[in-house]
Structures are given as structure tokens and as C-alpha cells.
Request: fold
Amino acid sequence: MNTISSLPLGQSAVISDLRLIGRQRQHMEDLGFLPGALIKPLHRGPSGDPTAYSVMGAVVALRREDASQILCTPCSKKQVSASSIPDEGRVCP
Amino acid sequence: MRPFTIALAGNPNVGKSSIFNALTHLHQHTGNWPGKTVSNATGRFSWRNADFTLVDLPGTYSLRSGSVEEEIARDYIKSGEADCVVCVADATCLQRNLNLVLQIQELTPRLIVCVNLLDEAEKKKIHVDLKHLSQLLQVPVIGTSARSGRGLTQLKDALYQQAKELHNREAVKDIPIVDSRAQSVIDCEATPTGEAPAPTGGIAASETPAMASPASPEEIASRSQFIYQCCVTAQNEDPHGRDRRLDRLFTSRRTGYPIMLLLLCLIFWLTISGANLPSQWLSDGFHQLEPHLREFLRALSVPATAESLLMDGLYKTLTWVISVMLPPMAIFFPMFTLLEDSGYLPRIAFNLDHCFRRCGAHGKQSLTTCMAFGCNACAVTGCRIIESPRERMIAILTNALIPCNGKFAGLIAILTMFFAGSSGSSLLPALLLTLLILFCFGLTLLLSRLLSKTLLRGLPSSFALELPPYRRPQFGKVILRSVLDRTLFVLGRAVCVAAPAGVLIWILANAGLLPAITSALDPLGRLMGLDGVILTAFLLGFPANEIVIPIMLMIYLSTGVLTDYASLTELHQLLVLHGWNGVTALCFLLFSVTHFPCGTTCLTIYKETKSRKWTAAAIVLPTLTGILLCIAANSLFRLCSFFI
Reply:
């Protein structure tokens, strides 16, 4: 199973599930990390951690251990470019 | 009409405070980072003979989870204290903002959506169809750019409209409020589009039933997703391209750290080199004024003792504080505010996060560390952005190790006098100050690590840091505001504290008490490479860090030798006369960055932790560190000089 921490930079993916419960899950969901949301890792900190992700039109940085709790399915390049909507704002059905 | 209460809600960093300031003409501090407002601020304004009370709620991503800010915001909205809620949304990041709009809509019938930052959205070629948005949400939608003042009149008009309707409804009490939603459809006429909403068709009809019960986050997300797709069109392939390019520059492995250091050094260099001349002018001016004032006092036949109290005690302290502190502050504050305004501070937190992670501390501690450069007390309050109590305590306890603005003037003065040589260049002191700041930062990390291994053991909690878009700072406004608000505030505080302190010291010195205190502290002072006078100055400087050096000078002067200390060279001579050398200066620098926090900060720590034990820890911890550091440095140098 892929997690968003294992995505290479620039590779878009759709969040499939969060391995979190309770308040931690809520907090992530509030920031936009919801099942079905499209995310893309943008850049990493100077030491390789944390990583900034584009999600719901915002940029949120997560540490590796938190990002590895978020499961995802990588999108192929075609899927993303086929959409006319700017990819940051999209939620896959 | 009774005063109408409006709550301002919204995601963090969408410009709520800017709107608040623009409407109320108050000057709540704004900054481009999430979590600036941590408690409710209240202001008032009038529009068309109606009075409004505006409550600025802390920024929240949602209203359902349990962080402190979210509870404050949710409780306030639910309590019904506000007659109307204005939800401020960021036009450049509307989708996630809509989640909150929809959540608030479930809690309150009276909602106005204010789509702010339209100017930025335009620059990024993001178009928001406000009319359509208003139809889909069935609430009034106003577009604004609070920083330039655009759309504020419409916002006030919409608020007035709501107030008038509420007033009318209250006047006819027996008509129950049944259909608030139908009401808000009528309110839509107040939108700048000026048109009544067209029938919204199947979409709104099918959406409406869902509003009855609390929707799940997925439902809300898909609804906001739908609305977003209907109302927002981005013409650019990548509307945030410029932000990403800047991010690559500011946070990459190769350029991230060097740029951070260069910026820090540049700010210090500009501050030191720019402050030299005005400082000289000011002190010359005060110097020339002194004989005239003395003459004036004599003309009033003021007794000699009182004249000495006023001139030697009060006047000299005040003029020192003003001439040495005003110019560097007037340069440093605006530059710091520019950095804050531009959105660079969260990038610093992003770059430094891994250091904090290794020390078992929270990544947002780097934000509160940055805030501490401005004011330790503000930073302690700012620690509320850290949710985990363990990590918040680490941040609070180590906060005082970062020198605040009040300490900078003194640090710069000592560095320039003792370590910059006679070259007169301001680059060297700037570099040294940068080194000192790096040292403070390292110490903060070390102490955080120590705490998380001993007193505050535990694992780092989850961390998410939002990186807001970069904004071009409003230079004119920033400079004006930071000079007026911060500089004069800090200077005013210093003067208010320094004046009575000057009198107190004059009295202590003339009553012969001062030598007793200083000689009691002398052994410890000598051990630390300092002397009793310096330690006394630190103790008496507890109310405000700004006055440590003035107090020290006054004590030195009160012991007989009257020298003029108008300029730094004369000050240097005075200190050398009292036995200062390079080691004394170094130990002074060390102790001035690592000693007990100032009175205001201690009070804030007590308010935030509600524990005497932790407040005491916050005082003892840095002081002990400072004493040990000074003793170590002093003994090391003595040992060296013994062998050489």
C-alpha cells in the first residue's frame, strides 16, 4: 500500500484512507487530507524532511511519520492532465 | 437601533485581522502566518447611524475538533452572542475555506461570506464568480481586498442590511423566526452584484435537506468541491507557480540555510550601520540641552539635591535609553515586520523543523522562537499554537533564551565597543551578533532536548505546518505601523520603567544602600566574569530588559566618577575604567541572553501555565544555564591567560 510519504516529488495521488483515528484524524481532515482528495508532494526541507504537499489549493508541510499514516493511490500523468480543473483543487470521485 | 454584534470567523491567515483593522480602525497586529490571533479581539465601528461590535475570532480550519482556538470560535458562534457571522475566505484557496463556511452555516442562520484577497487571486489569474457562489450558498457573498480597502463599503452595507432586518424582526416579536434561509435569499440583494439570485435549480434543492443534520466531513468536502468547481476558474495551468519557485529558492538543500543566515546578517548589519549616525545626533542633542535644563532648574530655585536627582538620575537615564535604543529599534522592527508580512517566517519553521524534531520538540516551536525575537511575552502567548501540552511547555520554558528586541540595543552596543575593533565597520558586529543568535538557537535546541529527555519526556506529536502564499509586503504601511506601534510602545515602556528606576537608584545610592547590595553580589559576579554592579543591574532590570545597561551605568556613575557617556567611545572608556575587558563583555553578552525572563514574560508564563512550579522553572532554568555558562567561560579564559 502506498503512503504519501513514499511519493516522489511532483507525483500526484488520490488519498484513499487515513491510518488515524479520533482527533488526529479530524485534524488532518480539516487541513484537507480527506479520502478522495488529490495531493501532490511539492518540495522537501533542506534535510529531506518535512515535505510540503499541495492539497485543496493550500500547501501544508508534514513530517515523514505523519505522512506515512496517509494512504494513497498514485495517479498516472494522463489522468491529471486530462482534467481541466487545476489539479490542486480537485477531489477525485 | 441596538448595537449589532458581528463575529469574524475564517481559516487562519486569510486576513481576518486586516478586515478587523480596516473596519474598526484599530491596529491589531497582523502577520502572514497562521495562528497570529489566539484570542478574541473586540472593536467597534458605526455605519449609517448603526453601531456594530466586531469580534475577531481565532483562525480555525474547522469547528469540530478540540483545539483551543476551535473551541473558542465554535462556542462563540454557537452561543448566539453574535447577531451575524462573517466568514472570511481566501479567494486563492477557496475550496478548503468553503468547508468552514459550510460548517458555520450549520450552526448559524445569519452568515455573510467575505471572499478576501481578491487582488491576489486576480494576480494569480484565479476568477471567483461571487454571484454564483452567493446563489449556491444562499447567503450574501462580498468580495474584498482588505489591504487595499476594496469592497469594505459593500461589506458594511451588507452588515447594515442584516442589522436592519434583525431590528425589524425584533420589533415585531410575535412573528417567529421560522425560515431564516428564505431570509438570507432576500439578503442576497445586498450583494454587490445587485441582483436577486436566480432560482438555483436542482442543485440547491437537493443540497438543502442535507443541512438539517450535521454533515460528515466527506459530505461537506464533496459539497465544497462542487461549489468550488462551479464558481472558480483558474486561467493559469499552475496559479501558484511563483510561490513554488520562491519556495525552491528559500527551502532547498543548497540555498535554504545560506539565505536564512544572509538575511539574518543583513538585518543586523542594516540595523547597526543605520543606527550609528542618528544615535550620535540624538545624544549630541541631549548633551547640548543639558546645561540649559540645569540653568532652567536653577532659575526656578530648585534645591541642589532635587536638581541632582532630576538631572543625574532621571535625565541621563532617559536620554541614554532614547538615543541608544530608538534608532536601532526604528530600523529593526520594520524589517522584522516586513519579513513577517511577506510569509517568510513559516519557511524558516519549515527549514528548521528537523532540528526540533530531533530534540523531541514540536515543529511550530520554530515559529514561537521567531516571535521571541520580537517579544518574549508575545511568544509565550503564541505557544498556544502548539497543541500537545508537553511540547508547549518545552517551547515556553526555552523561550527566554532568544533575545528579544529590548535586549538587542544593549547587545549591539557591547559588541560594537568591545569586539568590533577600531575599524568602525558595522559588518563585524553584525556577523558577531549573527553568531550570538546562532548560539542562542543552539542553546534552545539543547535545552529542549534535555527537557524532553528528563522533565518532559514523550514522543513528538503530529505536526502540520501551513505554508501560506508569499505576499508583497506593504512597505509604507509596515514602516509607519511598526514605528508607531511597536517601536514607540517598547520605547514608551522602557522610559516608563527607566524613569522610576533612575530615581530609585539615585535614592539607593545616596542612602548608601547600593554599595551594600553590589558588594554582596560581587563574589558571585566575579566568579561569573562580571561584577556586583552588573548583577545588581540585571536584578533591578527585571521589569524590562531595556534598562539593564542604563541601570548599570547609573550605578557606576553614582559611585563618584562623573563621566559623560553620550557616545559609545565615552561609554567604552567608562566601562574600562570600571574594570571591564573582553572577558567581562563576553560574559555580559552570555548572561544577557541567558537569564530570567523579564517581569511581563514571567507574568504571561504564569497566566499561560497556571502553575507556580512551571513559572519558577522558566525563571530558574535559563538563569542557571547563564550562571554556569559564564562561570565556564570565565574560568576557561583565566586558565588560558594563566598558561600564556
Observations:
- The first strand of chain A starts at residue 2 and ends at 3.
